[in-house]
Amino acid sequence: MGLKPGDTISTWITCSEAAESNILHLACYHAGLKLMPFSSGQDLPESLSLSSALIFSPWEKFNSEYRIDHILSSLPQLLTTPSGSLVPSPHKTKYFIQTGFRTIRGTNKLKTIPVYNGNSVFNNGFEIRYKGKDIKSEQVQAFIERFAKDSGKVVVNSLPAKSPLAIGSLIGTLKAGNKMVSAVSSDPGEAFNLTQADVLVTSEEQLGAFKQGCSVGKLVLALEDAKDVERVVKLFEKKGVRAKSVLAYNSADLSNLV
User: Fold this and answer.
1) Could you say which of 51, 148, 177, 236 would form a disulfide bridge with 241 (CB–CB 3.0 to 4.6 Å)?
2) How do beta strands 95-98 and 65-66 pair?
3) Distances (CA, A) of 9 to 30, 37, 136, 149, 181
């Protein structure tokens, strides 16, 4: 599509589309693209000004309106652009790629973009911009290397697919030759027990999703500050989630907190 290493791709995809998100994240990592995931329509202006391509779920709603309607209000040219063509946009974003099957003029469909199985290698130029903060390639790569060493044979992730920790954990898990199971839309404790997993990746925000307790080899937490580790671990213990060891990472820059 004319994208090159260092270009920015933004994504506005739902948590229920974890499979599409994971494939997209791996592709960006291989290609050395900068990834800019977001979940609020308030981030759309920044996305259109900074990214070369936007991948989005058109029929999910934000503020009671479909996401496609928010995009069309900023880019009415989509309605007059043939499907899959380069959009004559006044913004930096020229490529618009949708999930799902219902075609919207001016967009490519993610499911129809060819994927080539060649001898590609991981590109260390991969960066993430999340909530207005840049996580540089060196930071991302350092986290991936650490997580690859800590990864178990099966890793259960309950973080939203847009989370930098979820993205880095996925790449680190696959780099170690292991398996990741998404539990974003289900009970993470149940998924952990069913798959006989070793590692659980989660955060305090996901506590309400746990219905079953589980015994975890390594509990990986996304946190803002190291002082929160003990408090959050106790909250998980009350939910029946007990861990032999705890690994905490700063959700803003993926740095190691403990």
Assistant:
1) 236
2) unpaired
3) 13, 8, 15, 28, 25
Q: Encode pLDDT of 203-245 as tens digits.
A: 999 999 999 999 999 999 999 999 999 999 999 999 999 999 9
pLDDT in tens, 13-53: 988 888 888 888 988 898 889 999 998 899 999 999 999 99
Let me know whether 142 and 60 are in one domain: no
In this structure, are 142 and 232 located in the same domain?
yes
Domain-embedded: residue 117: no
**Measured between alpha carbons, how far is 142 from 45 in angstroms, rounded to an integer?**
31
**Which CATH number do you get for residue 242?**
3.40.50.980
Say if 191 falls within a structural domain. Answer: yes
R_g over Cα of the chain: 19
Query: Would you give the DSSP letter of residue 189?
Result: H
Q: For residues 54, 206, 144 and 132, what is the CA-based torsion angle, rounded to 10 degrees?
A: 40
pTM, rounded to two decimals: 0.89
CB neighbours (10 Å) of residue 90?
A: 9
